[in-house]
Design goal:
mainly alpha; 6 helices; 197 residues
Length: 197
């Protein structure tokens, strides 16, 4: 395969970009809101230290994942390799916020220590995942596919699907207009030239 046959950007990437971008912005707003209004960490710490650190990590992580996908496509002669999207998950945000950062902040009243302990916890998780990746392929080969997909389906239904459904009913004048665009783009296949297409 020729080196220049690996395309770095295709038509569908615009849809993926806007989907990932809006998801990440929403998750950052959720994290900032939880830390500011629920945990009561001062806004200058949240918006001056935590949010910029998240932005740098998300940017660097997506660049590295894109490089990994390009390298795999080039090495294996693929034209359909897609980078894994990188960013904070809602479930993980709630776990770290309420089980790590909030108790530490309540016990010490030190906002910097609280978010640093949260970051340390994320580092421990990363090391655990890296070690787990050494046996991940073996687990995948010896675990029934239905068992793995059932977990993903449960997460998708409860976290990914139900939250937008409830928000749609909270503000139907926004939610249903957006839903109409998505349905028309997916089912009707018109040339809308919008990210939903």
């Amino acid at each position: 395969m020729k080196e220049n046959s690996v395309r770095l950007w295709v038509h569908g990437d615009w849809n993926a970009f806007f989907g990932l971008f809006t998801n990440i912005i929403a998750n950052i707003l959720v994290a900032a809101g939880l830390l500011t209004f629920v945990v009561k960490i001062p806004a200058n710490v949240v918006y001056g230290e935590i949010v910029p650190a998240m932005g740098i990590a998300i940017f660097a992580g997506n660049l590295y994942y894109a490089y990994m996908a390009w390298r795999k496509a080039k090495r294996e002669g693929l034209t359909t390799a897609t980078a894994l999207p990188y960013g904070p998950s809602v479930g993980h945000l709630f776990v770290v916020t309420f089980l790590i950062i909030f108790p530490v902040f309540r016990a010490t009243n030190n906002p910097n220590l609280a978010w640093q302990v949260g970051a340390a916890w994320c580092a421990v998780e990363s090391i655990t995942e890296a070690v787990g990746s050494l046996v991940g392929d073996w687990v995948r080969r010896h675990t029934p596919r239905a068992a793995m997909l059932a977990v993903m389906a449960g997460i998708a239904i409860t976290l990914i699907a139900m939250t937008p459904v409830f928000r749609t009913w909270e503000m139907p004048y926004i939610g249903f207009v957006s839903l109409a665009f998505v349905l028309v783009a997916w089912v009707g296949r018109p040339q809308l030239r919008l990210p939903g297409h």
